[in-house]
């Protein structure tokens, strides 16, 4: 089960990297903030550490509760990808002619994909008994997101309609803060 789960997660991340690269190439003039660019390799490394750490050091028998949570957030990721389509990328690169998305999960929060990532980075290691790994990658991810989101939102706020739609929306959890 661990091999299957980690293989699926690793395969999904690799596919997303390819999809992201293709979307950025199609978009032409996307701006990526300095700190987004600097934190990106670290974010990729955090995902790799979570997946490979779980693969090599996790228990054979899964904790089904955490595994169910891991599976439960995947439809949200698909919803995000389908909603954004060719506008989605992993680099927080914002095309200058981007139309602000206010539908799908973006009708509820500003950064639904980051919520999915946070759940995945905790739930994957916890599914196989790796509490310290889950805590470590979650803390590093939170720190990186704190830096990255400032850059991303600065670029998004230059787009018409972004501030008006998202001023009252929470970043991660609907109806909070």
Layout of helices and strands:
Elements: H1 2-27, E1 30-31, H2 34-57, H3 64-72, H4 74-84, E2 94-95, H5 112-127, H6 131-156, H7 162-166
Antiparallel strand pairs: 1-2
Strand content: under 5%
User: What form results from the Cα inertia axes?
Assistant: globular
Strand order of the largest sheet: 1-2
What is the straight-line distance between the termini?
38 Å
Counting DSSP H or I runs of 4 or more residues, the number of helices is 7
Main pleated-sheet profile: 2 strands, antiparallel
Q: What letter string, H or E per element, gives the SSE order?
A: HEHHHEHHH
Number of DSSP-assigned strands? 2
Secondary structure class reads mainly alpha
pLDDT under 50 segments (min length 5)? none
Query: Oligomeric state of the chains?
Result: single chain
Rg from C-alpha positions?
Answer: 16 Å
- Mean pLDDT, nearest integer? 92
Helicity, as a percent range: 55-70%
């Amino acid at each position: 089960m661990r091999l299957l789960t980690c293989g699926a997660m690793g395969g999904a991340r690799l596919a997303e990297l390819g999809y992201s690269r293709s979307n950025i190439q199609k978009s032409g003039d996307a701006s990526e903030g300095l700190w987004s660019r600097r934190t990106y390799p670290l974010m990729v490394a955090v995902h790799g550490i979570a997946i490979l750490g779980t693969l090599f050091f996790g228990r054979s028998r899964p904790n089904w509760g955490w595994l169910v949570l891991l599976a439960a957030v995947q439809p949200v990721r698909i919803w995000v990808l389908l909603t954004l389509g060719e506008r989605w990328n992993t680099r927080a690169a914002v095309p200058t002619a981007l139309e602000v998305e206010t539908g799908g999960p973006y009708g509820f929060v500003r950064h639904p994909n980051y919520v999915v990532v946070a759940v995945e980075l905790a739930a994957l290691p916890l599914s196989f008994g790796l509490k310290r790994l889950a805590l470590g990658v979650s803390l590093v991810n939170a720190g990186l997101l704190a830096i990255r989101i400032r850059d991303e939102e600065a670029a998004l706020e230059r787009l018409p309609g972004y501030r008006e739609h998202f001023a009252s929306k929470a970043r991660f959890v609907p109806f909070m803060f």
